[in-house]
Amino acid sequence: MSEDELIALLRLQCIPHIGSISAKKLITHCGSPAAVFRDNTKNLKKIPGIRDKMINELHLKKYHYQAVTELKYIQNNSVEYFYFLEENYPDNLKHCDDSPLLLFKKGNINLKGKRLISVVGTRGSTRHGVNFSKKIIEELVEFNPIIVSGFAMGIDIHAQLAAVENGLQTIGCLAHGLNQVYPRSHQKYIGLILDNGGFLTEFWSSSLPERINFLKRNRIIAGLSAATIVVESGSKGGSLVTADIAHSYNRDIFAVPGRPADQSSAGCNNLIKSQKAHILTTGLDVAYILGWEPTANKPQGFQTELVLKLSQEEREIYDYLFKRGRQSIDQIALDCKRPLSKILTTLFQMELKGILRNIPGKLYEIL
Length: 367
What we know:
The chain is an alpha/beta fold. The protein has 3 domains: about 5-75, DNA polymerase, domain 1, CATH 1.10.150; about 105-290, Rossmann fold, CATH 3.40.50; about 305-365, Orthogonal Bundle (Arc Repressor Mutant, subunit A), CATH 1.10.10. It has helices spanning about 5-15, 20-30, 35-40, 40-45, 50-60, 60-75, 90-95, 125-140, 155-165, 190-195, 210-225, 240-250, 265-275, 285-290, 305-310, 310-325, 330-335, 340-350; strands at about 80-85, 100-105, 115-120, 145-150, 170-175, 195-200, 225-230, 250-255, 280, 325-330, 355-360, 365. Helix 1 (about 5-15) packs across helix 6 (about 60-75) and helix 8 crosses helix 14 (about 285-290).
């Protein structure tokens, strides 16, 4: 990406009234980040959801100066980044409308072909909660997932340290810039995380760990992951926010049940009671629901006449699943370049015809 385009991206990212969704609309309409700032007001007003206040803020010089300052930090510190329109951007986040324009990266993160799950919970964790989170991760080692969390006190940091102990990658999603550590007591863990994964953030070097940033950070934890596991949570808390966001993204949620009178598990029990979360008693529950069990041998095709009767869209999906094996709905829509709503309709029709089946974890495979 050229320097001009990166400055334009940073400008869009720092304008208060232009969030990720609006910025993506502007970029898509205009063709590139820099083109947004070259387009005229009349054309910009035609974009649905783009208000006059946003357009007026586009050309305020202070945002240009702020972007240039941040660019210098990025260049001087060799900060790597993921841009939402580039191939290296995390696949799971590509399906989230409000995912960040830019994600800044530090460490040895390798996302290629990896399974990502998030493990979150209360900062005031109990010994039982800590031990159970470690047990879950130990039971998932054979499936080699990346463990995503918030690098916070309590369940988060213990889950990430358990990942390191078991040779798994782990990603800490931060609510501030990469040049800071929060909480400061976790400074001693930085090296361990960097050597076994790393950190991601959408926040600049000037961003402080403010409350609103933690709420924004939670959508990245939920969006990166195929599923979110809540180990312990009271009736309110950041981990429940993460679970709600994961639910809005149509991702699987797991909650560890607690005793009815146990306040540290009230949030988990409510997630299960409201049927937002699968009950989790072992890490293998995650593997089963997400379809991580070993794939059984299956026939290499089905009746030729049935194949010939497929519509063009059905044949495209059939050929894709025949070549790639079981895939999620989101991945099918992304790779086949079809709207999710259209894919869902086509998959349902193919199920009725006995061509494929839906398996736990919102995955599809041909029969």
